[in-house]
Design brief:
- This is glucan endo-1,3-beta-D-glucosidase.
- Belongs to the glycosyl hydrolase 17 family.
- GO terms for molecular function: glucan endo-1,3-beta-D-glucosidase activity.
- This protein is of the alpha/beta class.
- It is built from 14 helices and 14 strands.
- The chain folds into two domains: about 300 residues, Glycosidases (TIM Barrel, Alpha-Beta Barrel), CATH 3.20.20.80; about 70 residues, no CATH class.
- The strands form four sheets. It has an eight-stranded parallel barrel with strand order 1-2-3-4-5-8-11-12.
- The longest helix is centred in the first third of the chain and has 20 residues.
- The protein is globular and about 75 Å long.
- It starts with a helix and ends in a 13-residue tail after the last strand.
Length: about 450
């Protein structure tokens, strides 16, 4: 009765609205894939404590239903996505088997461990065999039914797809799913997601599209962008282009309303000689740091503006027992001793203050004496480099109207002046981290306000 009386109070409504707004804005959507193919990794209990106390990472995804990990994350508040082993898929098309699987692998840990997703296999269409592909949708539906029959309504069922499901991705407007998979498998999968209000999960890796010619485009550095003449949108990075290609392909099947999540994406910080110059700490920090900045600013893609994707970076650790070339062992954000390979703004401030090997600039800058800094071009930056900065920033949804003719910052009409305004706006709206003013080494922070006359720089 007291609650009912309070519900008529305007002050109560304001307080409730403020509480809801605070709760919403506090939610993160950057997670990590927690792989365990290493003989030197810390125990799960130590990992759980580290993530909770030292980082802002609020969700993990694992590639099995490891009971030790599920127990370790109990009570931490960190969301845990688990994965059904590929070989279990055919058996899970039977509801009794699905209920037994839920009883053995989910119920002993839920809800103490906040399991948010069950992924039915991993990249089934990419790897096969056909028997798993044929049973995928049925297993997803039956597992969803088994959860409901067990009284569990807060765990979503999905599966992750490699972008091998796309026939093409460039330009995004001409993208479409591969024939055969489109209507035969992906349309039923998307119908399931629509009915259950669950996300279609994809694994975009600009890493695999890297070349020295498009290096900046793949790792969120300033570049001239790619123009899609059919949608008249300009893409400043490959991640946005791949995500819009997925979206267009979904729309062509009639499922543009289904949400999209990113199950895996990342970049290797070290590789063999034949994997250079792609694999480096600088490229890995730039790509993964770009993802974090996108999430913090809430910027979406050219076709999905202001869309914030739930994203799981691959991966948490460097895994020394993974097969393949050296690059496969070096996708981690952290070393086995829990030290950062590089910092992209996911460490809490007291942790990030420690120096990080191989990264010359801190992720969180020390505030100026008056609490304000501005980002401007370095004196030796060329006009060509600064024009790339302008093109990149303006392609990311930043308001560039002030530097257009008639705008308050159009004069002086020079590349350097326009670059200063746009670079600073990007820095200020992206979180004010030092790396937000890096611009491939052409940006520098100053404590002197560069505003002149009517041209006021954001601070």
């Amino acid at each position: 009765m007291a609650v009912s009386a309070l519900s008529h109070s305007p002050l109560h409504l304001v307080a409730a609205a403020l509480f809801l707004l605070t709760t919403i804005t506090a939610v993160h959507s950057i997670g990590v894939n927690y792989g365990t193919l290493g003989d030197n990794l810390p125990p799960p209990a130590q990992v759980a404590q580290f993530l909770k106390e030292k980082t802002t990472i609020d969700r993990i995804k694992i590639f099995d239903v490891n009971p030790e990990i599920l127990r370790a994350f109990a009570g931490t508040g960190i969301l845990v996505a688990v994965t059904v082993p590929n070989g279990d898929i055919p058996a899970l098309t039977n509801v009794d088997n699905a209920r037994r699987w839920v009883s053995a692998n989910i119920q002993p840990f839920h809800p103490q461990t906040k399991i948010n997703y069950i992924l039915v296999g991993n990249e089934i269409l990419h790897w096969g065999p056909q028997n798993l592909i044929d049973n995928l949708v049925s297993a997803m539906r039956t597992l969803h039914q088994a959860l409901l029959l067990s009284g569990i309504k807060d765990i979503k069922v999905t599966t992750a797809h490699s972008l091998g499901i796309l026939l093409s991705s460039e330009p995004p407007s001409l993208a479409k799913f591969r024939p055969g998979w489109d209507k035969g498998v992906l349309a039923p999968v998307l119908q399931f997601h629509r009915e259950t209000k669950t996300p279609f999960m994809v694994n975009p890796y600009p890493y695999f599209g890297y070349s020295p010619e498009n290096a900046n485009f793949t790792v969120f550095k300033p570049n001239k962008g790619i123009f899609d003449k059919y949608t008249r949108r300009t893409y400043g990075n490959m991640f946005d282009m791949l995500m819009d290609a997925v979206y267009i392909s979904m729309k062509k099947l009639g499922y543009g309303d289904v949400d999209i999540a990113v199950g895996e994406t990342g970049w290797s910080s070290s590789g063999e000689s034949f994997e250079q110059p792609r694999c480096s700490v600088e490229n890995a920090a730039s790509y993964n740091g770009g993802l974090v900045r996108k999430d913090k600013t809430g910027r979406g893609t050219p076709l999905m503006p202001r869309k914030r994707f739930e994203t799981y970076i691959f991966g948490l650790f460097n895994e020394n027992q993974k097969s393949g070339p050296l690059s496969e062992k070096n996708f981690g954000l952290f070393r086995a001793d829990l030290g950062p390979v590089y910092d992209i703004g996911l460490l809490r401030e007291e942790t990030a203050a420690a120096p990080v090997e191989g990264v010359p600039r801190p992720a969180v800058p020390a505030p100026a004496q008056d609490g304000k800094k501005w980002c401007v071009p370095k004196a030796d930056a060329s006009d060509a480099e600064l024009q790339e900065n302008i093109d990149y920033v303006c392609s990311q949804g930043v308001d560039c109207q002030p530097i257009q003719p008639g705008g308050p910052c159009f004069s002086p009409n020079t590349v350097r002046a326009h670059a200063a305004f746009t670079m600073n706006t990007f820095y200020q709206t992206s979180g004010r981290h030092d790396f937000d003013c890096y611009f491939s080494g052409t940006g520098v922070l100053t404590e002197t306000d560069p505003s002149t006359g009517l041209c006021k720089y954001v601070s």
